[in-house]
Specification:
The protein is mainly α. The chain is built from 16 helices and 18 strands.
Length: about 575
Amino acid sequence: MEEPGFRQRKKAAPGSANGHESGGEAKPGPAFPKVYVLLAVVVVLALYNFLTLVKNPLSQFLGAPTRHLPGVRTNYVPTFTADEAKREAVVEAFKHAWHAYEKDAMGDDEYHPISHTGSNLTEAGGIGYTVVDSIDTMIIMGLEEEYQRARTWVADKLSFERDGNFNTFETTIRVLGGLLAAYHLSGQDPVFLEKAHELGSRILPVFETESGLPLSLINLALREGVPDSDANGYISTAEASTIQLEFRYLAYLTDEDTFWEKAETVMAVLKAAAMPHGLASIFLDPKSGRFRASPIRLGSRGDSYYEYLLKQYLQTDQTELVYREMYDTAMTGIHDHLVKRGLSSQLLYIAELNPEQSQGGNIGWRLTPKQDHLVCFLGGSLMLGATTSGALVDNVSIPPQIDELTDQGKRDWLTGVELIDTCMATHDTQTGLAPEIAHFRMAGDGVDDSVAPADWYIKGARPDAPPPFDARYILRPETVESIFIAFRLTGDPKYRDLGWAIFQAIEKHCRIPTGGYASVINVDQVPVEYDDKMETFLMSETLKYLYLLFADSSVLPLNEYVFNTEAHPLPVFKPTMRTGFS
């Protein structure tokens, strides 16, 4: 039986169009005895078996692809041109969101579309989170009028002189990343680099710790790092390790090495503290630089650590091998310890490990079959890693051929494809939107089959009961992000179909008629109940990735740009500094 997903290329006979001889009218020939016919059949079968034995080694010797990767469809025509109608529908959705915010709350950090109000992250005022987070999307979409108004606000009204504590990580990925992307995409408008340099300089004091790990909060006016009292002064792994793309690109643009050195020191500390399996628990001590006994997961507080291992390697044109090594080790750790399958449908998901202390004081780990929506970034990231870190050739085919990838590359590609399928399965709800957190069934989990489905479920969800927090959809982009990457790497139109289904669900259930989009409190309840908040990543990430999914594939090619974790595209560049650790 043919192995599922594998397809051998069929070749026509030389000099023919369909495997038939051509070039003249058929003429009758002499009749052959039956014994000769049987002999001919035997010879043909023997020849066929011989060719089958030598075909793959010969093809490999000649350098020709031998077969497609499992899970990669072969019966489609790759699509690289824009789907203009769907692309423009996404543009209209962005305008519906932006114009409402601009009318009701221009300059405020966050927007509440039902009450038509804005709010700021500190009592001292905001720093235009929504404006700066959205401005590069306007440039990409060609919204010139909206862009010019936003640029004017940045030039004239954006101030970082705020005596309040802002999250270091969020401010870096949204505001610093947004300014840097706008600088590049605008043709190097100096106003964006000036603001980025000022903000980066104000953030630098967070690195003044015993270990060099950054503190969680920054007072921008006082230029002082502030510990997070809610986390006992610890910093999350994602917070510490998801500021590198931005600070390194700022250093490249300004020739100020300190931005690079501070960000890179963090990675050296993390490498020195690494666990043998390459995985990272979600909390670090900024004094000692060591991991704390805390959960290991690719959801909140852990996700973008793994994302930036790959992207730091890609950002500097694959020249810093230490990040490739750290990434490869981490992906193997994920496969060895966290990749699991559900009971009924065998859906592949990424589990969590939670520490438990025994009576003897030893730390053990308990597997929890829980996957945050945030984890859905990993599907596309694995596929991207497979075609870069896991590639045997410089220019991998679209879609990749099996002999173009290392064994790890093939493993990661297949896991990425399946994880996207799982993330789409979690959209099988009343609204077609995925919940914030999904749990998967395990053998002997004690879950009542009459309460929870046999594959995945929303923990705590009960009929006629208040919905749990897990049931929310807050306009998150992670599944769409992975779909976008998968489409760019395969050209398979099925990924556009998946993205369009998500977009239609957002339009149907999250769109507020008077303007803007709101979060949904329960994805399994129709009609929906809203949470009056439009997250900034709707315009920065979700709608941007949807636009790029339907745009011409030459727009922001993946070999020339790296998207930060807030979807701000930063160009690949050749570094002027050598990696300071190994």
